[in-house]
Design brief:
This protein is of the alpha+beta class and 117 residues long. It folds into two domains: 28 residues; 83 residues, Glutaredoxin, CATH 3.40.30.10. The protein is 47% helix and 21% strand. The chain has a four-stranded mixed sheet. It is globular and about 30 Å long. The protein starts with a helix and ends with a helix.
């Protein structure tokens, strides 16, 4: 007989403690957004996408996001790995689900909805 079978009265307390810990971890996960923005050096749409996504993140996620900007000319090996077919492309890695947006990110409401911000 294991400890759980011997002491069934303690089981709810154990589950409550586990649930609190799980909820804390879940909240921590959601607090940080992780983005990767693929751009093409000095391309106009890429420059606009950088400005727009930084503006959205600062307005709605200030202090709760990480944004990695990847220039495809400096890192061409990442195109195949991430299956990037057009730029600019924004990938929201965290929190799940993974999302991809292609374009200059000018429609802020569409960007916020797609990224669940």
């Amino acid at each position: 007989m294991n400890d759980f079978d011997k002491n069934k009265d303690n089981s709810p307390e154990f589950l409550d403690d586990s649930q609190v810990s799980f909820d804390s971890l879940k909240k921590l996960e959601v607090e940080t957004y992780v983005f990767r923005l693929y751009i093409a050096h000095n391309n106009f749409k890429s420059i606009q996408a950088v400005k727009n996504i930084k503006s959205i993140c600062e307005e709605h996620l200030k202090g709760r996001y990480k944004l990695e900007i990847i220039d495809i000319y400096e890192n061409p090996e990442r195109l195949e790995k991430e299956q990037i077919f057009a730029v600019p492309t924004l990938i929201k890695e965290l929190p799940p689900p993974l999302q991809r947006l292609i374009g200059d990110m000018t429609d802020k409401e569409k960007v916020k909805n797609c990224l669940s911000i």
